[in-house]
Design a protein that fits this description.
Two copies of one chain form a homodimer. Chain A has 519 residues and is an alpha/beta fold. Helix content of chain A is 44%, strand content 12%. Chain A folds into two domains: 159 residues, Aspartate Aminotransferase, domain 1, CATH 3.90.1150; 239 residues, Type I PLP-dependent aspartate aminotransferase-like (Major domain) (Aspartate Aminotransferase, domain 2).
Chain lengths: 519, 519
């Protein structure tokens, strides 16, 4: 599966030391440069002499299939005749793009922080005005136009710390809370810290398979090895400790495995980890002296009965010594998901636990070179950390809007699960949380043969056909990773209920036709 | 000057290939870990085994002296007795933090994009409402909460292209305009492309000395060599072609010099390049087959009579072939500077010219993994690219506010120049543009001796004394680079006129006292 590249970039020497599952790579190499012209007329930068990690990296959520979706959309607008009238983008966790309306309170506060005159001149609610005033007081020059501290406005960091304390029932030091431009910036910066070989072994990071492609993309970008551990599809995508040990032992022969990423609730898999599972992972990380990266951006998105979100911070604290005092943990949160779905505002935070103070200082210093997260994204973070209190003027509306979104997501998670579960050739786990289903599809030998002819992995072939014939855009399983010879795709649960019903209907018809065609 | 580090990180092998001026490094190593505890109790990450490029990197604009400033501010708030009552932050180009008020129109539009109800319910001006409506129409789901395309909202990219066409009098293809989270994201991503050795030589980038520390920090972070070319202080910080050739020839012996950075108007040096100077740099880059990075974020900030801003794009276009067709150029712009000073909103763009299409596609792909620039920052970009038209309801106020800021900045640039020029032991060039002065100070042998005892470079010693005795925070020249045995500091021209007069007064008294003390 590993492409032979000749090691042109010096970082590549590191990348090639991998023994892990990288299902995207073969595709990358096939697609490389396809349809592009690279005349070297006086040009100093060519595809061959730039950073080969950038050439290699892929981000499936916005990959070639999604780009094709944009083209189809434009063609439709220009009057092209297709077997469908509109595209349904089920490829990305982008709630507002799929018709979810913003939480009014958040937007009121942001509008006033952006244009403070509104605090006096408008009829916006008093609690929103108060919150906007407080946020402005925390900003230099009382303006959202000033840079904030690199870790964010202190007042907002304190409100986030209070949110975490309330969530977990344990202390949170605001000095360990760092606001970020979405969760992405924090994740990338923490991974960049790990770029150092140990005893001559190349550094590597454990990630779930399937995983969110930000991780695979960033590991390739930074020349870090990716050590995949398979989630247990037959056990609702749970973490199997034997599999973790296997992956670690195998990789450790040639690599220095420095950290483990856990995504809970899962993306693209939608599982919610049990407390026991989290404890086991913490013990595992401690035993092997690995840092723990807990991607907890879907902490508000819990749908299935009996499921509950436990933060790694809470569990580690309650496990006591040595874990609570020594195990390094960074937890990531975002305003892009949850009930707010504010992707475009780019707000998030990370909580840093048990990091060596000198290392933490270097992390903060590195963040300072990108100056600060966006001030208005921070204002939105403040509203998520400190929503209207019970009894305040905006509380009822805020609660109603929040509940409406979460109830509807829960309902849609069931619709998707029920539909896929009952489709012939489909296997789909319960969507316990997050915003996605990751069903498995049986593809016939004839379909696999056709995919081969089309020079595409079978799941990519399936997803392209789905797109071209129905306008539905999902992301093939290869973008996230999957066990060899299995085929999946990720769909979001985000189309609004009516559209989702339509999408499920179209999907069923397509799949039947596909099955018949390749029977 | 180069520290010996034993090459622990694999990237470091690259970093150590440098022959350039890196005045910050010696300080870095001295300060490393000072006052920090790194008990290795069960911790997997220590200062010694993390990415050594991150350990090495420094960003002086938010460095230790600035952190100390924050501590002093807190001490003052807590009632500590100091020889001064307030801190004056002249360390960072952060206009709003220093009392500049936002451009009303920008904030009105952002407020309505954030909270569209205001379009109907408020008395905000019609043109601002129209612009907010248009921006929302360009966003998925008509919401700022949706992710935008990775290169930004198409409508806004088109407005930026129109702005560039108007500025330069030449065509601009919006497909080559990419919106970013401030200029920083774009600069970092383009530099990351260059991380590939050529014929076994490590890649390196030419940067002016003095330079803006984002460049030095990023080059260290990415393990790229820094090739400093000295700006000509005696010629108002102009670019001397002989010096460029010298720096290139020397570095080329051991490194692959892949790009040159030019900052115009200059940061920290405040010069505005002549058209002839720009032409020469373009020829130089072409001759040596280097990419050109034009940092043009201060394009609105031109103060001195006879000075005019010429964009590299305009000059390259008018130079004709082969330059206009072959010379690779990326120009960076930001909403953080100019007359708007919207640092906190994090908006900017880059225009990409003559890049190999395959390379550009990889650049855009890499940007897609960080999803998109902030939507509200993009809305602000739209207002900068497409301000109210003459005759529209907001035009007069917008023009008055813009003119007021720029006139005041011009006035303040003169106050600073006149004061420093006439101070004994000071040499200061005219501040032709941007937001800074970078005066040179003569320090007596006794002062240099005292600095040595305090284990600080002389200019750092001076800046710390200034801070501790007066509360004025400037950035020492070592943070930007300077010729050996010369001493400078950078001050912004951003304190409002009254405060600036006070600051200049305090500064003069301090310098006299300092000079007397170390006579």
């Amino acid at each position: 599966m590993r492409p032979e590249l000749g090691g042109r970039g010096w970082k590549l020497a590191v990348t090639t030391g991998q023994t892990d599952v990288r299902p995207m790579k073969s595709r990358v190499c096939k697609d490389r440069g396809k349809g592009k012209t690279s005349p070297e007329v006086g040009r100093s930068l060519t595809e061959k002499n730039i950073n080969q990690n950038i050439v290699l990296m892929q981000y499936a959520v916005r990959g070639p299939l999604v780009i094709r979706t944009g083209v189809i959309e434009t063609e439709l607008q220009q009057g092209a005749q297709k077997p469908f009238k509109r595209v349904i983008r089920a490829n990305i966790g982008d709630a507002h793009a799929m018709g979810q309306t913003p939480i009014t309170y958040i937007r009121q506060v942001i509008a006033m922080v952006a244009h403070p005159e509104l605090i006096e001149s408008s009829n916006l609610p008093k609690d929103a005005k108060d919150q906007a005033r407080q946020i402005l007081c925390g900003m230099s020059g009382h303006s959202a136009g000033a840079y904030t501290m690199s870790c964010g406005v202190e007042l907002i960091r304190k409100n986030v710390a209070a949110y975490i304390e309330k969530r977990d029932g344990h202390k949170c030091d605001f000095n360990n809370v760092c606001l970020t431009t979405g969760a992405t910036t924090g994740i990338k910066m923490v991974l960049e810290l790990l770029c150092s070989s140990i005893d001559g072994k190349c550094p590597a990071v454990m990630v779930p398979i399937p995983q969110y492609p930000l991780y695979s993309a960033t590991l390739v970008e930074y020349g870090l090895g990716q050590v995949g551990y398979f989630l247990d599809e037959d056990n609702n995508w749970g973490l199997d400790m034997q599999e973790l040990e296997r992956a670690h032992a195998e990789a450790s022969k040639t690599q220095a495995v420095r950290a483990i990423v856990v995504i809970n609730p899962g993306n693209p898999t939608g599982q919610v980890l049990t407390r026991k599972n989290i404890e086991d992972v913490i013990k595992f990380a401690y035993k092997h002296k690995m840092m723990l990266l807990a991607d907890e951006v879907y902490q508000h998105n819990i749908y299935a009965e009996g499921c509950q979100f436990f933060s790694f911070k809470k569990v580690i604290t309650e496990m006591g010594a040595p874990y609570c005092k020594e195990q390094e943990l960074v937890s990531f949160m975002s305003i892009s998901k949850g009930y707010m779905g504010e992707c475009g505002l780019r707000g998030g935070w990370m909580e840093i636990i048990n990091l060596d103070p000198a290392v933490q200082a270097h992390l903060y210093k590195a963040l300072s070179a990108i100056l600060c997260p966006t001030s208005l994204g921070q204002a939105a973070v403040d509203c998520v950390a400190k929503p209207p209190a019970e009894g305040s003027p905006s509380y009822e509306q805020w609660l109603a809007e929040k509940t409406c979104v979460l109830d509807s997501l829960a309902q849609r998670s069931k619709i998707i699960y029920e539909t896929f579960k009952n489709m012939k050739g489909f296997k789909c786990n319960v969507v316990q949380g997050a915003m996605y289903a990751f069903p498995r599809i049986e593809l016939s030998p004839k379909a696999i043969e056709a995919a081969k002819k089309a020079n595409r992995p079978p799941d990519v072939f399936y997803a392209y056909k789905l797109l071209e014939e129905t306008g539905i855009c999902v992301v093939p399983g290869t973008g996230f990773g999957q066990k060899p010879n299995t085929h999946h795709f990720r769909t979001t649960i985000l189309p609004q209920t009516e559209l989702l019903a339509e999408m499920m209907d179209i999907f069923q018809k397509f799949h039947k036709k596909f099955t018949d065609e390749f029977a």
